[in-house]
Specification:
The protein is mainly alpha-helical and 211 residues long. It has helices spanning 19-22, 30-45, 55-64, 76-85, 96-100, 103-125, 129-185, 191-210. Among the domains are: 14-110, Transferase(Phosphotransferase) domain 1 (Transferase(Phosphotransferase), domain 1); 127-174. It is an enzyme of class 2 (transferase).
């Protein structure tokens, strides 16, 4: 399921169905965890986790039966993970993230990485001197390409930041110029200038009257 919203429909074999599905209680992603636990048991034991001679008996074992255990050949940590996945209550089952963080998964994932490292080293030891030299050159080229890519990304970020700063400064300068220009055009006339203008206009009136 791609969602943890409750659903009510079901189809398919009952061997991997969770108790809440068979009880028509609605189900979510925790039912996927149950099915994964059934698959884990089947992979280890080569048989279904809940078996019966007919459909109804299988359903009853899933809903009310005991949780099976893995064969003794498997580690207690793996058995613990499987039993947690097959808890009757959905809320008691772990999430996928919690399963990945379990002791069994962490230890075996590290072992897998270590074995892959040893396998790679073994492959290198089988190479001829010329092949090893070619491999070293390819690795050096990859490292150099990574270094140049990182340098280009840093340079791009630096130029981008500089452009933003310049745009911000230019915008501030233009805003200040516009404000200053508006203030200069709207300056009120001084009283002295008003008096000079009044005297000039009065002189013009007297001249026209004398004529």
């Amino acid at each position: 399921m791609g969602s943890c919203d409750l659903a009510t429909t079901f189809t398919g074999t009952p061997y991997y169905m969770s108790p809440e599905v068979l009880s028509h209680q609605g189900y979510d992603c925790k039912s996927d965890i149950w099915a994964l636990g059934c698959l884990l048991y089947q992979m280890c034991s080569l048989t279904h986790a809940f078996r019966g001679p007919n459909f109804l008996s299988v359903v009853m074992k899933i809903v009310e039966g005991d949780t099976p255990a893995l064969p003794a050949a498997y580690s207690p940590d793996l058995n613990s993970v499987m039993r947690r996945m097959l808890q009757k209550q959905p809320t008691s089952r772990p999430t996928a993230a919690e399963i990945l963080k379990s002791t069994f998964m962490e230890e075996n994932m590290q072992t897998k990485v270590h074995l892959q490292t040893l396998r790679d080293r073994s492959e290198v030891e089988k190479m001829t001197p010329r092949e090893r030299m070619r491999l070293r050159k390819l690795q050096a080229a990859d490292e150099e390409a990574g270094r140049l890519r990182k340098l280009a990304e840093e340079k791009y970020e630096e130029v981008h930041t500089r452009r933003r700063e310049l745009r911000s400064r230019h915008f501030q300068k233009v805003s200040v110029d516009v404000l200053n220009s508006g203030s200069a055009n709207q300056q009120p006339e001084s009283p002295e200038r008003w008096r000079v203008g009044a005297k000039t206009e009065a002189g013009r009136i007297r001249t026209r009257t004398a004529r």
